[in-house]
Amino acid sequence: MNTNRTTITTTIGYMAWALAFWMISMPHALWLSDKLFAPAVNMEYPLAILLFVMGILAFLQDQTLDSIVFFGGGGLLWVAQLAIAGSAMGAASYFGWFYFIWAVFLAYVWVGSFSGGFTGIVRMLFLLGAWLTLLALAIGSWASLGGFVVLGGYIGLVTAILAGIVSASSVIAHGLRGAAPTTAS
User: Fold this and answer.
1) Among 114, 127, 115, which Cα is nearest to 162's?
2) In terms of pLDDT, which residue wins out, 5 or 121?
3) Cβ-Cβ contacts under 8 Å for 20 (sequence gap 6 or more)
4) Dist. CA 166–CA 78, nearest whole Å
5) 3, 22, 163, 166: which sits with the fewest CB atoms below 10 Å from its CB?
6) DSSP for 2-14?
7) Considering only CA atoms, which of 148, 157, 149 is closest in space to residue 17?
8) b/e per residue, 119-154, with b = 16+ CB within 10 A?
């Protein structure tokens, strides 16, 4: 396995997750107006495509867990557009179900992520945070409890930071091993 390619895939994939979770969580945490929620989600299309590409590359590099995380993230971001369309019909519980189904997915991916090492532990915490974010948003949407939505927003912001740490730790660990990046001649 080429560690340069693995590092690139992990670094870019988790940074895409970090940016996506940060942009989606800011309106939920009441850092931005609700009017900015739709534009923030519109940014998710390119990030979804990027996550799908990283999912394919991770799969080809035998990084099964990262492949699942990236494909799942791409699906979550892509389908978020449909959830916004569903919410226009006035069904608050629609978002609740959307968040809950994705929370279930992230819960079993989180259980599958238990592994050692610094990056493995932070990845596990990232997946736990993603699961808890979506679970809080689901409960908030179903029960019309704004406090749970805000809680989900703040958990999402912490989760975004954890994804950024996974991204950074991958490239920093690679650099500390002394491997020089490959460049085209």
Assistant:
1) 127
2) 121
3) 43, 44, 47, 51, 73, 77, 160
4) 23
5) 3
6) -HHHHHHHHHHHH
7) 157
8) beebbbbbbbbbbbbbbbbbbbbbeeeeebbbbbbb
Query: Looking at residue 138, what is its pLDDT?
Result: 93
For residue range 48-94, list pLDDT tens digits in order. Answer: 999 999 999 999 999 999 999 999 999 998 887 766 665 655 566 77
Domain ranges for the chain, please list them: 3-172
Sign of CA dihedral 15, 58, 179, 115: positive
Number of DSSP helices (H) and strands (E) in the chain, helices first = 7, 0
The token pair at 162 is 């954890």
Which of 73 and 119 is assigned the larger pLDDT?
73
Helix (H, G, I), strand (E, B) or coil at 63: coil
Nearest to 157 by CA among 137, 174, 184: 137
Q: Are 2 and 61 in contact, with CB atoms under 8 Å apart?
A: yes
Residue 58, number of CB atoms within 10 A of its CB: 24
SS3 label, residue 101: helix
Separation between Cα atoms, residue 168 and residue 67, nearest integer Å: 18
- What number is the average pLDDT over the span 104-115? 91
